[in-house]
Amino acid sequence: MSEQRSHVYKWFIELDDGEIEQWLRSQALAGWHLTGFRMPCRFTFVRGEPADEVYRFDSFPAWKRSAEYDQLCQDAGWELVFYWWGSYCWRKPAADGQPNEIYTDTASKIARQQRLLMYFGLTSLLLVFNLLGSRDRQMDMLRMVLTGVQAIMLLPMSYLIWRTVSRLRRLRRQAL
Prior knowledge:
This protein is α+β, with helices and mostly antiparallel strands. The protein has helices at about 20-30, 65-75, 105-135, 140-175, and strands at about 5-10, 30-40, 40-45, 55-60, 80-85, 85-95. The strands form 2 sheets. It has a 3-stranded antiparallel sheet. The chain has a 3-stranded antiparallel sheet with strand order 4-6-5, sandwiched between helices. Helix 3 (about 105-135) packs antiparallel against helix 4 (about 140-175). The longest helix has about 35 residues, at about 140-175. It is globular and about 60 Å long. The relative contact order is 0.11.
């Protein structure tokens, strides 16, 4: 008998609010276990026995991926579900009294927020430079639409930067 698969399209941005992680946990409790992810928003699940599994996302620049990081997470009981250009998705069975977080200390949480801030900041800078460069070009309809989309994308990027900076400040106050 072939295994039953499901593809679900759900947009998310990797932040600490845990909404997508809770959704993945509820899927596992219903017997749908994550096996992969394709950009921009396609999750692939396989049907199995219901299980209480915790999911966590993490980011590292693709050029800094290391076997030591992978081994550290695996030694802590995490299974790598997928890796895509600097984004990791880890899973492990939920255990009472055991930490269900990849990062349990404030310093590593601060470093994670700094990495997210770098991603969001670089993306925003690329959008701004592209918009500034488009002022000098003659605008046909397609170029006008693309420029408008890029301008609109700056609003959510600004919000993501603001949220990440707020979390970073809160974590730094906790560290004092």
